[in-house]
TrEMBL record:
The active site is at D317. GO terms for biological process: amino acid biosynthetic process; aromatic amino acid family biosynthetic process; chorismate biosynthetic process; pyrimidine nucleotide metabolic process. It comes from Thauera phenolivorans. InterPro entries: Cytidylate_kin, Cytidylate_kinase_dom, Enolpyruvate_Tfrase_dom, Enolpyruvate_Tfrase_sf, EPSP_synthase, EPSP_synthase_CS, P-loop_NTPase, RNA3'P_cycl/enolpyr_Trfase_a/b. It is an enzyme of class 2 (transferase). Its EC number is 2.5.1.19, 2.7.4.25. It holds the Pfam family Cytidylate_kin. This is Multifunctional fusion protein.
Amino acid sequence: MEFLDLPPMLGAAGSVRLPGSKSISNRVLLLAALAEGETDIRDLLASDDVERMLEALSALGIEWSGAEEANRYRVRGVGGPFPVKRAELFLGNAGTAFRPLTAALALSAGEYRLSGVPRMHERPIGDLVDALRQLGADISCLGNEGYPPLLVRPASLRAGGVVRVRGDVSSQFLTALLMALPLSGVETTVEVVGELISRPYIAITLELMARFGVRVEREDWSRFVVPGGVRYRSPGTVFVEGDASSASYFLAAGAIGGGPVRVEGVGVNSIQGDVRFAEALAQLGARVAMGDNWIEARAPAEGRLKAFDLDLNHIPDAAMTLAVAALFADGPCRLRNIASWRVKETDRIAAMATELRKVGAEVEEGADYLRVTPPPRLCPAAIDTYDDHRMAMCFSLVSLGGCRVRINDPKCVNKTFPGYFRAFAQVVRPVPVIAIDGPSASGKGTVAAEVAAALGWHHLDSGSLYRLVAHAATRAGIALGDEPRLAALAACLPARFEGGRILLDGEDVGDAIRSEACSAGASKVAVLPAVRAALFDRQRDYRAAPGLVAEGRDMGSVIFPDSALKIFLTASAEARAERRYKQLIEKGLAASMIDLLQDLRERDARDAARTVAPLQQLPDAVLLDTTSMGVAQAVAFVLDLARERGLEIRG
Ligand code: DC
């Protein structure tokens, strides 16, 4: 399973150009295909769902050309039903392609098979099929009744009249019907049965149909009259707005992580309902501003986001972002009227509840609501994404809680936003790490401690963890080559670091783990991959605001490869042996220069030769040779570099 590890973030600020709206892109493509004339589409979204629609249009005889890099496409419309009368379409998990194409094909007098990924075959389409059957369409469900895959066959259609369609499962059924009906050539009235959900999406449909020359008369949200004898006509050029649902992650990032974060591509004039996410965010106390083509969000002037209890039926997709924003609220939050989540890319209510619990929230899950109680502290977790792009994007926000988070299968964002994590990285500021790696007794411990003190940052002496494992193993009578038992010991090492003291089971072992025997033991246990793996997360948990100075052998290579500054601190073996010798003598301990030198050389060789995380100077590390340099000079060298790299220096 692929994953992406996001480090804890200090905050978020900046601006992002949004990819095109998925809802608008796929609607415009279909309308352009059915319209008379050629349509020039700008800023079309480049994503999996749009790919599926483009492939389907090709298979149905529509000529289009375009360049993904330029996000510019030309579609030559056919001015009526699809010309290809026999086709098999695979539509992935793209609801915005599957539903409207089903309706358009039912009115195209041909034989078509439509299928998708297994999840698509679990997503209901029966209400749309029922409505189309009322028109005389011949559609069979090839698997379970009411679900894809579907077979559409030519049929003699009824002329006009009234068609009834359910509106309370997915608004896409109504959208599909409305967009297809002009193909029938006769006036048809659509009556919505049940309360129409996700209304803003119907508004997008009507607005785009009007741009292509077909005006639907609407009475409330329950009756829609599609005129007869009309044809779609290309409006020439169509600009696709930025995706308002995709905007929600960045706006939430601004509200949680300080901000301001600005999204470009949607604004006050947007036809997408999800821009109203900004209003919801403002109700949580975030400071929100909007222009013609941008929206910006900042954290509340003081304190956390406010707890909320909101009906979110009008913004079902962006509402998921609020479920994660609830983790940052000052009390329990309730998301109401979100039953449609259950039939989306995954059962989003269940998925959201499960994953929110992983980071420590208390969650109550109802048929159509979620209640989220934020934890006092978020815990690191590996988030499953259920092949749902929005799960992946939502949970990236956890990193703004000063908490690392792993996103499993991050590529699922390709459905609507292939560049999401790059865009996210543009606006967030990771907790900075200075990695100081180098051989034993090079003085990196002292230098790291002083750099950390000067910056007011945390300090990780990773070598002491390996020393502690060796020490605890010796005490417990575990052989230093017994990998499974050593790894088990490392995984729950009862060690604490308190004000310069190192405690094992409450006992101060600071001096004991510095003994030569323990040093040699540490270097032996450090060779074992399972021991290193067991200490992996523990080391990464030291990364916390305002920053971390981490020293060891593999800080820059394995534990914090994204360190803002990597130093390779070394000194000649003779110089290191001499320093160690002085230390031991000062402590009144017996020492021999010859033994120390030999011992150091052996440890260097072992650390450098091991297959896992060997000691090495990375190409992106700065060499600091302290053979003839004092501690103060070495510290100044590191601090200068930190300043040059723009790291915030206290004092
Ligand atoms: O830095 P130190 O001398 O305290 O390290 C003790 C041993 O632990 C050393 O032999 C190498 C090993 N070590 C390691 O393998 N990886 C680290 N990140 C730190 C130390």
